[in-house]
């Protein structure tokens, strides 16, 4: 159970807006000897804590051989409620079903640095595996937010 100010939240207006796909919006930067790659969203989406955790495990497993590091830039801080199936209307809001976070277009979800000679190839392989785990289109770009 997460500690928040309120147990249950309303959906914001951005939840109801259309889901458009972005092809760019994050600048590519060069960092020097060890580049830091970022997994960036191309669509707005709601990520659950299970999706973030499976992506973290995949990232840790992929970076174990090259002795790379990673940083998680999202946190599931929004409780999502749901009522059980076949329950009549009324009687208040449902209980908290899962925790999630909203990722807008261009949001950096994960950052990681890859050791070894084949940085770009390994970064693309990691992006492919993470995008399968997250279920949303993503890009792997060079970032410089950790300097």
Structure, explained:
- With 147 residues, this protein is of the alpha+beta class.
- It has a domain at 19-75 and 102-143: Aldehyde Oxidoreductase, domain 3.
- It has two helices and seven strands.
- The chain has helices spanning 49-63, 119-134, and strands spanning 36-41, 45-48, 69-72, 78-82, 95-103, 108-113, 138-143.
- Helix 1 (49-63) runs antiparallel to helix 2.
- The radius of gyration is 18 Å and the shape is elongated.
- It starts with 35 loop residues before the first strand and ends with a strand.
- Residues 20-31 have low confidence and may be disordered.
How far apart the termini lie comes to 33 Å
Q: Which fold name is given in CATH as the topology of one domain? A: Aldehyde Oxidoreductase, domain 3
Number of helices: 2
CATH architecture name of one domain? Alpha-Beta Complex
**CATH class descriptor name of one domain:** Alpha Beta
Query: Residue ranges: pLDDT <50 for 5 or more in a row?
Result: 20-31
Strand content: 25-35%
List the strand order in the largest sheet: 3-6-1-7
**Number of E strands:** 7
Give the SSE order as H and E letters.
Answer: EEHEEEEHE
Which assembly state applies to the chains in this document? single chain
Q: Sketch the major β-sheet.
A: 4 strands, antiparallel
